[in-house]
Design goal:
Structural class: alpha+beta
Shape: extended
Order of helices and strands: HHHHHHHHHEEHHHEHEEEHH
Strand content: 5-15%
Strand order of the largest sheet: 3-2-5-4
Helix content: 55-70%
């Protein structure tokens, strides 16, 4: 059972999107009304200075000005790019001269292609224009949702107490299962192969298994030379530290019975033939609160964000309903299914 604090927090967060339209200004919540008011006041006071600043691109018309094909990149554009990417990616770009240069070069390449598209009037195609508008609408929707969610999500959520409570109530989830280091040499066998090919694969697998056992070739060398499992063959057949419970039924029993460092004979599963080597077993262990704290914080934030997002959609649908007659929806489906409409027909 969640704490009273957590329930109260959720109720307070949800309340913002369930208020009647006359009790709340969404633009006000986002600070848009205040920003416009301040902009108008500043414009009135500084009207005499505006002539000297006419060459500067304002925040409001910046995007529109950039719609014109341009073959240059300036600092203003770069600032915009940096401001609209994840902080982790931004820090990585700014920390490495070569990576940053590559990023800017890719942006220059993008502008070149956009200029070519504009020169060839691709945007004048009606379907392209539709897709461009839909893309812009999707961006507007996500920006609106994210701004409203970020505004209403407390900066200190979740608290240390809420993280600990979640951990205490879900300790069974914070366990690292028993794992095993595993190597393999793999020969695929599937239904598309004829009987001759299957026999040849099995013959090769038995031969390789015998050579490993006799010491004619070591396991890593055999994996590199013969294994068809691309992710592991370059690593000498090493598959990684695998949860024991996730091992294929045809391999699990044999691996558990093998001694550490021992190699099996040829084993068969639904995917093919395997020669496996078992490494050490890492026992199951419980994860501490400190180890799991970042994961729990992310989980709780995502839960609240998802609930807020759902509530915002529901409130928007009530405040700005879209007429969608149920009988029309089924009619559209049937017409599209039977292809009754000509491509240029208007509905």
């Amino acid at each position: 059972m969640k704490s009273i604090k957590y329930i109260v927090l959720l109720v307070s967060l949800m309340a913002i999107v369930s208020m009647p339209v006359n009790a709340i200004s969404i633009r006000g919540l986002l600070g848009l009304d205040e920003a416009e008011s301040e902009t108008e006041e500043a414009a009135s006071k500084d009207n005499a200075k505006s002539a000297n600043q006419s060459s500067q691109t304002t925040d409001e018309n910046w995007a529109k000005s950039k719609l014109v094909a341009n073959s240059t990149i300036d600092l203003a554009l770069v600032r915009r790019l940096m401001a609209n990417i994840d902080s982790t990616q931004r820090n990585a770009l700014l920390a490495d001269e070569a990576v940053f240069k590559q990023f800017i070069q890719q942006e220059a390449n993008n502008l070149s292609v956009i200029s070519a598209a504009q020169a060839n009037k691709v945007g004048e195609d009606s379907n392209t224009a539709f897709l461009m508008q839909r893309g812009a609408d999707n961006i507007l929707r996500e920006v609106y949702l994210n701004k409203l969610i970020e505004l209403k999500l407390p900066k200190d959520f979740p608290s240390d107490e809420q993280v600990k409570e979640y951990f205490d109530n879900n300790k069974d989830k914070f366990v690292i299962a028993e794992r095993m280091h595993v190597w393999q040499v793999f020969f695929p066998v599937n239904d598309t192969m004829d009987e001759k090919a299957v026999k040849q694969s099995r013959k090769t697998a038995n031969s390789v298994a015998g050579d490993i056992k006799k010491g004619k070739i070591d396991f890593a060398g055999a994996a590199i030379k013969y294994s068809k499992h691309t992710p592991s063959n370059a690593n000498g057949g090493y598959m990684g530290l695998i949860n024991t419970a996730d091992l294929k039924p045809g391999l699990k029993k044999e691996l558990l019975e093998l001694g550490e460092g021992k190699v099996s004979g040829v084993l068969t599963t639904d995917t093919g033939l395997h020669i496996v080597k078992r490494g050490s077993i890492v026992s199951e262990r419980k994860v501490t609160l400190e180890e799991s704290r970042p994961q729990i914080r992310t989980l709780l934030i995502n839960q609240v964000r998802a609930q807020l997002r759902k509530a915002i959609f529901e409130q928007a649908a009530k405040t700005y309903p879209v007429d969608l007659p149920p009988n029309k929806v089924e009619e559209w489906r049937l017409r599209l299914k039977t292809n009754l409409d000509a491509p240029t027909a208007k509905q």
